[in-house]
Each structure stands twice: as C-alpha cells, then as structure tokens.
# Entry
Amino acid sequence: MPNRWIRESARTSKNLSEVADFSERLMWRVVTTADDFGRFLACPAIVKATCFPLMDTMKVGKVEQALQELVDNQLIVLYQVGDRRYGYFSKWIEHQGDPRSKKSKYPDPCPSFCEQMQTTANSCEQMFTDVSSKQHTRSAPDTDTVSSSSLKSPKSLKSLKRVKTKTQTPPHLHDLLSGQRVNFNIFWAAFPKKRNKGDAERVWIKLKPDEVLFLRILDKIEIAKQSTDWKKKSGQFVPYPASWLSARGWEDEYPVPPPRNGGLQL
# Structure
C-alpha cells in the first residue's frame, strides 16, 4: 500500500473536530487501508480486523458507531454493492492527489456507472471476439495443401497449445483470485498465529469462501481469541491458520471463561 499524506489542514478541519477521539483515530487507520481511489471495505468486522489487529478486546459495535459518526460528519461515504459494504473518503483526491492506479480495487459507488462500464466491457469483448474470428478465418491453413509434417512440428504444436490455453481461460478468473487474496489478507491480519502463510493462502484459495462464510470466519476468530484454549500459555495452543481452515475451525465451539467479577455471564 502506498504512503498516504496527512495535510496540516487536518488540524483546523471543522468536520474532523466534531468527531470523538476514537472516531478520528479510526479514520487515520482506515486511510492506510484505502486504495488509490480512497475506497475501502467497510464491514465493521473487516475494519476492526484490518485496523486494530492487536486489539482483541475491541468490540465490533464500537467500530460501527465510529464509522457512522464519520459518515454523519461528511468525512466518509458508505455504499452497498451486492452483499458487501464499501466506503470512500469524501475529499480523497484533494488530500492525497490523483490516483496512481488506473482502476480501483473496489466497485464504483454509482450503479449506473457500473452498468455503463459493464456494457463497454461487453462491447469490447464482443469486438475482440469478432476480430479474432476474422483473423482466424483469414489465417486458417488449407488442410489440403499443408503437409502433415508441418502440422506436427514442435513450433506449430506449441503455438496451437498457447492459443488454446488463452481461449479456455475464464475472463473473470483474475478478478476472482484478486478478491479472494484481499479477503485472505484480512483473515491473516485477524488470526493470532502468523505461521506458514503460503500454506494458509493455498487452503483459502481452494476454499473460496463467499461473503457469508467470510464474515462467519472473522466472527468465529474473534470468539476463539477469548476462549480458554487460545489464551492458555500465551497462545501456545492456537492452531496454525492453514490447519484451522482445513479443519473448518469456524464450525467449532469455543468455551469462553466466565467474567472475573463473579457476575452472571449473559
């Protein structure tokens, strides 16, 4: 993630002066997670895991209230695309400058813009298909005049194999893997034991958790962090993340110790 600017105008910002200390603290941490367009994943559980990975006792509800306060003071805007919530900073370009990337990691908040871009993408894809079809027709060899030895040459077979591979690659595969790697990094930040990251990422990509399962995994990690087993001997019995994912650890039950003040646990 590129470095971000904190302008001196932040000290005299009327909007920023209206929010609570924790909300301002959260805002600066979210700044470090935003992409070059000022957009970020805004699910409270995800924000908590990415912005406060070492604060196990922090409540998701506190993060949700702080996000809402930032919205009320026009510092961020929240929007929904499908089942996932996103956000962006209202004056990101003004404070951070023009984006370095050509495309945001996250969807545009305007549905009409997304539909327009999708239509353009479909048109370009159809145009590419038509051009490729014409080129293939013009360059198709005459099987009556081409010798069998030339068709079986290593160079010809290599070319055919390369073209075949390109044709069969799903167009959305790259975006799918990119989204899963973003979610995996959030999982990795939330999981208390940082061991064998490569193994854990391979299990994650194979698992391909959807939005519901992704949030369930994050919630269960927060519960497990408070359990007796995971706290025992400074986390000695916390499993490796790859093992936990392979064993579907989010389906386990984790006994939480009773409160120390002797009160009833609700």
Residues 174-251 form one domain. The CA atoms of residues 39 and 106 lie 7 Å apart. The first helix runs from residue 14 to 17. Confidence is low (pLDDT under 50) at residues 112-121, 143-152, 163-169, 262-266.
